[in-house]
Structures are given as C-alpha cells and as structure tokens.
Amino acid sequence: MAKIIYPVEGPLAQSGTFSGKVAFSRGVKIEAGTLLFVSGALSMDKQRNLLHAGDMGAQTRQVLRNLQEVLTEAGASFKDVVKVTVFTRDITRFREIHDARLEFFPAAHLPASTMVEVSGFVHPDALIEIEAIAVLPAPAPRSSARSALGTAARKLVRKAVRNVGRSVGRKNAGQAVRKAVGKAVGKAVRRMGGKGRARRGR
Question: Rounded to an integer, what distance in angstroms lies between the CA atom of residue 49 and that of residue 193?
Fold first, then answer.
C-alpha cells in the first residue's frame, strides 16, 4: 500500500488541554486497496461488561485493544489504519486520550483523526468510543521459485504416469504410479534446488 502522511507540525497548543504530542496526522494519502471499516468500540470485555469506569486513559487503551482484535482478525495492524473518529464524554481529557493512543499507533503511521464531545453512550459509564478505517496490506506475491517448482513437478509427474501406463499392467499400476510420482517429485526438487543455489550465488 502506497501511503503518504501529512504530519501535524508541532503541538496544537503551547500549554493547557491541547498541548503535547498528538496521535494523528493532518491527512493520509493512499492508493486504496481493500478497505476495512471497524465499528465504534467501547471499553468492554467479551461479555459486554464495561471496564475501567471513570478512568479515561484505561478506557482508551481497552477500546484500542478491542479495535486491535478486529484488525488482527482481518490481517491488519494499527499501521494500516488511515482514519479514526473519536467520540468522548469529556474533551478536556484530550491529553489522557492521546497518551494512550500514542502507545498503539506507530509514529510513522499516525492516522487522520476527528474528535468530538458527545452527551452519552449506550453504557452510562462509557467515556470514549473509537471507530476506524484501515487499508488492508496487499497479499504477499507467490514465490516464483515455488511456482516454478510446482510446474516442473507436475510436468514430471504426468510424464512418469504416462511411462508407467505403458510399461505395467492394470493390477500393479497403482503401486507403480505412486513410486514414479515420488521419484518425479524428488527429481523436481533437486532440479529447482540447484537453480536456487545458482541464483543466490550471483
């Protein structure tokens, strides 16, 4: 995924609520691949019990762990997140929220972000909710050597089976074919292994 980060230059304020490091960028430019939209998460465990009542920092960390679970399941991580929207009951606790976020988001991959103060959540003790958009990393290309090995092995197996079919009777064909296939695969592996060593020696 090609990505360009437009960072925040300096602190938002020299002192007070919005001073210090922030866990977001002014913008993120991407060549979009597969998008993952992660629903807003609260500070809850798997049994939907709210955790860390009254503690904004701890709730933020639990929210991020819940987001991380979805990201991991989808094959992504926090460096793949390009946008977050943060809803909080008390925006004056901005510093606590960002200190927690900085523990999860890599400094070189801070997402675009919006934070708004709201009047309440589905649970009365919830202090923060975060939703996210991520771009999933492209799947790793199939190894060319492995692909070539598979092609070579299939060709040798087909040749071996044809030879066996001409040389043995139906009664012994199964055993002969298995033996021929084993030899063909071994020959293909040895052949590709030699090519691999030659390439690495250059």
Answer: 55
Place of tokens 């991959």: 109
For residue 154, what are its two tokens?
A: 């299939």
Helix residue ranges, H only, the chain: 56-73, 94-102, 144-167, 173-200
CA distance 72 to 141: 20
The alpha carbons of the chain give a radius of gyration, in whole angstroms, of: 28
Closest CA to 55 of 20, 17, 100, 18: 100
pLDDT of residue 1: 66
pLDDT digits (tens, 9 = 90+) for 76-102: 999 999 999 999 999 999 999 999 999
Q: Which fold has domain 3-135?
A: 60s Ribosomal Protein L30; Chain: A; (3.30.1330)
Q: Kindly report the pTM of this predicted structure.
A: 0.65
Residue spans per domain, the chain: 3-135, 144-200
Euclidean distance between CA atoms 91 and 119, whole angstroms = 11
